[in-house]
Fold this sequence. Notes:
This protein is mostly beta strands. The protein is 13% helix and 43% strand. It has helices spanning 23-32, 49-59, 160-163, 247-254, and strands at residues 5-7, 14-18, 42-47, 66-70, 91-105, 110-115, 118-123, 129-135, 138-146, 148-153, 175-181, 192-195, 200-204, 212-216, 219-241.
Amino acid sequence: MSSPDTFRIRGRSARLFFDRDKSEAEQLAASLAPFVSDPAEVILVIGGDGTMLRAIRQHWRDGLPFYGLNTGHLGFLLNDPHRLDFWSRDLRRYRLPLLDISTTGLDLQVRQEVAFNDCWIERETGQTAWVEVSVNDELRMERVVADGMLIATAAGSTSYARAMGATPLPFNANLLTLAGSNVLKPEFWRPAVLPSDSRIRLRNLDPIKRPWRGFIDGLGQGAVLEMSARVSETAFVELLFAPEYDPVAKLAVTQFPQLG
């Protein structure tokens, strides 16, 4: 498990990424416009967790840390939008690897992408999906009969994976989650937690009768025959948090019912 270090924005220079369809995000972006400059020290992301995922997808190669301001709902990856004193505070910086994902389409072309949260396949018709699961090129399940299957990072374990019955993991744990949606066979199979150096491959056993479609961080990939994922050795992202919004502490709170 990687520990955060301390980061402070020294020059108050930022780039903005925000949801232009939401008035609250636009208003907050307007108030921060005086701090926009090039070169920037940080990317300020205004919106919900989905906005943060889009920002990471588009700008992780820029090598700048991301600081999120929540104008959405849960905001697991974000901070309090009403506290704008982050310029003068010591923030917690997490360096988190991305997933390297390979998908094989109907044209047999292999496409490479990266993801922060997860990737998954799901049935495209009324027929259940038949999935062969391999880990590190070793066959683990000959046939999973389900509506779909998902591979998630520890950070992604709190979103769609959690809805599939997976246990949420600490944000910075060196683990991957493999989960299934409405699994019929093997009976009583539960989501698996695997070491971060695992390479997980999902292969369609019956692509003609039981076609799939794929998704990477919620972005549709169209029809796929195979999907594999592993933690990247080179692609990573840095996320910044105010101490009171540290996602590891937030996870502990969200797993227990609140009093009152």
